[in-house]
């Protein structure tokens, strides 16, 4: 393949622009601000889910508390009724009196057990409510941090896009001045090796960073200025420069 020495030198400019675009793309994909935002989003979502779980738990505890309190009231009402029977002398036989006193004692034990349940539910209710308040505060804090991270991410992305647009415009201008067959070869090498063209400097290919042997250097010296050369090791387009050491 033939191409003017000037066109071949432009390949190095094109390779530098492609390297800039690759760096910008890598920065875009690995942006710390975006990673922080994603981490905060995961945390915020987890807090939201835990908050919803606690909200459901508090609803269950409220229903459990109301039932336990109703049970206590029912037992207390039976105790009061039985005591009224005792106090008003409605029980005449000793056997019935003993049975009623035994029932009152049993109901009092039952009342004590139910009141323990009420206290337990209230304690769990208080703990769940305290945890929910803590979650609400943490959610608000994470939401603020997430908003700040989003602003920094968007600013960084805007800067990257501006730089990428400039590099892309410059690349299009350089590529537009190059022969189609040279660009086709360059793009093919770039697809295979990331860098499509490399300079020959001081007898070394800047693409694979290997020094050329004496035979290859002699072949390059003998080649016409418009002949498109390839590195024997990496197969990239090898561009001669004043620093080639030939």
Which labels suit this protein?
246 residues, mainly alpha, 2 domains, 4-stranded mixed β-sheet, 5 helices, rod-shaped
Q: Short description, anyone?
A:
By secondary structure, the protein is mostly helical. It contains 5 helices and 4 strands.
Task: Characterise this structure.
Strand 1 (197-201) and strand 2 form a beta hairpin. The relative contact order is 0.15. The protein is 76% helix and 5% strand. With 246 residues, the protein is mainly alpha-helical. It is built from 5 helices and 4 strands, in the order ααααββαββ. Helix 1 runs antiparallel to helix 3 and helix 2 packs antiparallel against helix 3. It folds into 2 domains: 5-25 and 179-240, no CATH class; 31-176, Helix Hairpins, CATH 1.10.287.1700.
Q: Which structural category do the helix and sheet elements fall into?
A: mainly alpha
Biggest beta sheet summary: 4 strands, mixed
In CATH, what is the class of the largest domain?
A: Mainly Alpha
Strand tally, please? 4
Number of helices: 5
Secondary-structure blueprint of this entry?
Layout: H1 5-29, H2 32-87, H3 94-176, H4 180-193, E1 197-201, E2 204-205, H5 214-222, E3 229-230, E4 237-240
Parallel strand pairs: 1-4
Antiparallel strand pairs: 1-2, 3-4
Helix pairs in contact: 1-3, 2-3
């Amino acid at each position: 393949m033939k191409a003017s020495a000037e066109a071949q030198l432009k390949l190095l400019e094109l390779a530098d622009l492609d390297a800039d675009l690759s760096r910008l793309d890598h920065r875009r994909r690995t942006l710390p601000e975006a990673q922080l935002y994603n981490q905060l989003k995961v945390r915020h979502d987890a807090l939201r889910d835990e908050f919803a779980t606690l909200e459901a738990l508090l609803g269950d505890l409220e229903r459990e508390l109301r039932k336990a309190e109703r049970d206590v009231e029912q037992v207390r009402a039976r105790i009061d009724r039985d005591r009224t029977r005792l106090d008003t002398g409605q029980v005449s036989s000793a056997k019935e009196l003993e049975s009623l006193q035994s029932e009152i004692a049993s109901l009092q034990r039952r009342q004590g057990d139910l009141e323990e349940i009420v206290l337990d539910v209230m304690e769990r209710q208080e703990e769940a409510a305290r945890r929910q308040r803590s979650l609400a505060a943490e959610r608000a804090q994470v939401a603020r941090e997430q908003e700040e991270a989003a602003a920094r991410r968007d600013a960084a992305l805007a800067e990257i896009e501006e730089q990428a647009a400039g590099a892309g415009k410059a690349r299009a201008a350089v590529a537009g001045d190059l022969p189609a067959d040279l660009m086709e070869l360059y793009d093919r090498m770039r697809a295979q090796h990331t860098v499509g063209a490399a300079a020959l400097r001081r007898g070394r290919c800047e693409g694979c960073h290997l020094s050329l042997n004496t035979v290859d250097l002699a072949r390059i010296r003998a080649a016409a200025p418009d002949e498109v050369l390839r590195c024997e090791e990496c197969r990239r387009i090898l561009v001669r420069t004043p620093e080639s050491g030939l």
